[in-house]
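FOLDING PROBLEM:
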Amino acid sequence: MAYNYKDLGLSNTREMFAKANKEHYAVPAFNFNNMEQMQAIVEACAEMGSPVILQCSTGALKYMTKEVVPMLAKAGVDRARALGSDIPVALHLDHGPDLEAVKLAISAGFSSVMIDGSHYDFAKNMEVTKEVVEYAHKFDVTVEGELGVLAGVEDDVVAEHHIYTDPEEVIEFVGNTSVDSLAIAIGTSHGAHKFKPGTNPKLELDVLTKVEEKLPGFPIVLHGSSAVPQKYVEMIKKFGGELKDAIGIPDSELKGAAQSGVAKINVDTDGRLAFTAGVREVFATKPGEFDPRKYLGVAREEMKKYYIEKIKTVFGSEGAYTKAAK
């Protein structure tokens, strides 16, 4: 069955980003893989009065299925409204690999899609991105493109080295493809194992500044922006998990980008860490527990609590829309 995102109560990202750019905050784009994660994301954003982009990778879409994902997204909108919040909710395909993946997502009710042609050369990236834009815009679905390459691993996206975005290419890329937003590479990284402890991760904000000078007011996106909170790394280890020591992007760096021209910041790993820490704590402290509601519910609340704090300290999107009634 095919779905139209408007019938699900979803929004695309066009007006979201225009408001974010005008008011100097970034829209949270949080990945989800199940119902509890969706609930945590929507409830956190509804309570904070923040717009939200529910992100779903091709792997997550396959896991939850194309029949279930649109219903979860609709339920997210309904949950926000039940809480008394009017926040816009978008459903976004993260790292769409090709036009076929985009077509599947749009038929499943996605209101926004990303086409990741960053592994191609510049000309091929433009060609592939333009083809997706022409298709998606027929359905009023917004499109995110990408220039530059982030190192790290996220689902099926794997890259060994960073390739920073060339500010000289952005005008031609955006002009020729008509993308609605552009993901750039300025030092963020995919996955939990971003940087070794003892290093001092910094964003190349001079690259961001140059891109903004070339494309004033255009929505810029940052991928791979998890902070890898040590609290959750230590909780996971304490309760029987194994994780390599790593650190992420400092919140102070991301906050500076959010107050500049960055309209959307992606966070996936942090949510996974918070969720897993919650589950592991229950299993370790209550080994006789077998009711999924008792451990998934704890994980949901841990993830929600973390995202509320992230909205306040990094995104600056708190209160952009009506907050949920308490």
